[in-house]
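Database export, one record per block. Field names are fixed; values are copied verbatim from the stored entry.
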Amino acid sequence: MGMKWWWMLGILTIGGMMFVNEAWYGNSAAFGMAISMIVVTLIGMKQVEQHHRIRRGGFISLLIAGAIYLGLPNYSVDEAEHRLQQVHENVNYVEAVGVVNEGWNPFQPNRVYLFEIDSGDRVLFLPDSGEIIKTRPPM
């Protein structure tokens, strides 16, 4: 198994994460940690002897999978919409809004989902806690 193979796998993984993040999570998933782990691993693998690569690769893959899992918000855009539809008749997903995180947690989503409900009111849905916050109507 040459290095090329590892790079292909790493790039496919990162591509897949970015796709899922955009398609389902409005880019709110905090994948920075997982992506940097993959890149560091790919660079570091060159130094690892061939016969250690598989075992070490397996261990690192578990760590990366953990980072991906932790980086995923609890709610995708669809799930958020579904929760809001149980309370409101009209629910429209507007966009994912960037937020500044208080404190340093690499796995905290840096976006929240903005929905428009019933009479044009807007609510924010926090993808990690599922909390719903009413916003002031736009002037």
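Remark 1: The chain is about 50% helix and 15% strand.
Remark 2: The chain has two domains: 3-71, 77-134.
End of record.
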